[in-house]
């Protein structure tokens, strides 16, 4: 039979749609035609595949070869289809049984010598292959990554001849065995290394317990960045589903996922970053910082130094937990369920309100500086806290207050309560959930409405205030929200937003 079909996977965002590589040999003048919306790198695979087959000592058929990459309306790019194309040609030419290709999927770029080179985006393809019930053939360098999809049969190969011998039954390949992937965990910085700032540490506890966004404001050198870097160590560990999502994003973005498996990401982009760097994009859309921070923390230091139009792109993903990048032919969705932590100075010089009176900024300069941040963006930040400068007290002690492990235990207990009650963190409650789980007594509701009117809070801000109050109640394992919880939540909410 001169028709063979090989299963492979494309890469679209962080998904891996199935691609069938069909190879047909017909009589006629020798030629090779590649169809199925291939882009430039895929078109070049014709020459790579021909040289790889010949240099491996195999026969390249002197016939009319037609290769179809189906579905035809899905753009294909990269060298990931080289191996599947080569196997399709060899199987159609009878150099190994076609039936051997039925239960496997193949990814890999071919060198001219027949060696198989690594490709990016293997983990999404591995997860999709596992769901389809097939084994996966990958380059040797990608084997550890593919094995993150537990339960998947992975064959790691370094040369085309190894696969031909395997399919012919001469030298069967053994499934690849992973080596302790879950043990590669790096410790987070400990919160007890931060001297003083008890109010800020309390805000970090509340933010971690309810997955709330947080803004630190204060003069330089008060520890805002130091505090923010400790937040990932307070968050609960990623479960398997979340860890696979994080690793898949890193795989697509050409990052090595094993280095952070299964840690929560902490992204810290510079304030000169563009909008595309934050949300993703490009002719071939790649994930941006907000997607790389999925299930983790996005820290924006010197918040007003970012361009305003760049910050405005955060408003939609802060609400929806995803970002949609539209192109002429398609829309690509990237996950972006991140926790925003930001830091800023109170004025251009940074010393507004300092007891020493060092600030020399005019009221116009201060207003212009603060106008770089829009009200709708600040409205989406649940906790606002001023980090004041404390008296200088150099200490040789390595421990200052509770450790990250102690606070993380409190966070885990609060998160368990939220998961059992509503199935998500308090920050992600929708309006029906807010009504069901954040009910107040008549007296407390009247008191809160009066306070919101005095502070001119928007309805969105009032809803977020209720979510923070619910988190404060969960930290105390209280069934109902009390007046003291509302009062503390109001403390984290500035007026005139």
From TrEMBL:
SMART domains registered for this protein in UniProt: AAA
GO MF annotation terms: ATP binding; DNA binding
InterPro entries referenced in this protein's UniProt entry, alphabetically: AAA+_ATPase, CHLI-like, MCM_dom, Mg_chelat-rel, Mg_chelat-rel_C, Mg_chelatse_chII-like_cat_dom, P-loop_NTPase, Ribosomal_Su5_D2-typ_SF
Domain annotation AAA+ ATPase: ranges: 210-370
Keywords: ATP-binding, Nucleotide-binding
Transmembrane parts of this sequence: none
Pfam families: ChlI (PF13541), Mg_chelatase (PF01078), Mg_chelatase_C (PF13335)
Taxonomy, superkingdom: Bacteria
Similarity annotation: Belongs to the Mg-chelatase subunits D/I family. ComM subfamily.
Name listed for the protein in its UniProt record: AAA+ ATPase domain-containing protein
Organism in which the protein naturally occurs: Pseudomonas wadenswilerensis
